[in-house]
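Most newcomers find our protein records easier to grasp once they have seen one. Sequence and backbone structure share a record, each on its own labelled line. Nothing more is needed to start thinking about how sequence determines fold. As an example, a complete record with its sequence and its structure tokens follows.
=====
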Amino acid sequence: MRRGSGFLMNGTASACMLISGLALLVPGVSAQTPTYPVKPIRLIIGFTPGGASDLVARVYAPRLSAALGQQVLVENRPGANGIIARNIVAKAPPDGHTLTLISPSTLVLNSVVEATPFDVARDFAPVARIVDLQNILITHPSLPARDLREFIRLAKAQPGKLNYATSGVGGAGHLAAQLLSTMAGIDLVHVPYRGGSIAINDLLAGHVDSFMAIISTAVPHVQSGKARAIAVSGARRSSALPDVPTMAQSGLTGYDATTWYGFVVPAGTPNPIIQRLYKEIIAITNDQAIRQHLESRGIEAFPAAPEVFAAYIKAETPKWTRLVQAAGVKAE
């Protein structure tokens, strides 16, 4: 009996060893979490170089490369209001080697574009909210409006004639401008571009009257006097342009259209990988030198963990969706 029991015990142990050995030979089966990352990481940006999302991406990319031990490559894939870039990430393997930045504009894509090939809530996993930044209404210096009240008066005197540029339909600037139009009761003509850098060039050339820009895009041009700052969109003034009042201070009580950016990966990405990315991204966000660099462009650190970011996305989506649906905003 003892010999038989011993045989069974030895046989069981041998079987376990055999199964463990085979597991190591089967692709995708491992006794522990596989090493991450194992190849370069793609950071897909849906707009042209020089815009706010591109600026933020290029601050984080080299530092993430150093932290993760693999190159993080910023890849600009502009077009279709950011849908091209978002779709690449949504359809990528959920292994942490493809990520992107999203903002409030991403949350309304399903409302402003018919047959969007992905769903934000279903196809992305939040990693970290990182920064907040304001929009700012700027004008060409030739426009006879020096503050928001004069801008609104001018727009009411010329309904349907005064125009404004944005980085795209349903983008952060478009949402902020639509809120301005709704609250002020004015009729402005929207001129969408494929990115903030292209829009700012046309404003500086005098081809458009105004531009609802992400503040980081506008700061150097306001400081040089090539563009006139009218008002910022947040609840408080920006440290980058402290002399520029908020929309609320300029007469639109309750106006607040702050933009934020956060990292997401494809849904289904393993939690250990998300947590590794979160750890490194938040360490960069909390670095004092990085904060000072971003703040000089009007970008404020606002770090949040994956679960907090997920809850924020859930709360923000209906807010902006209601605005674009009420305004009838559709891709042009």
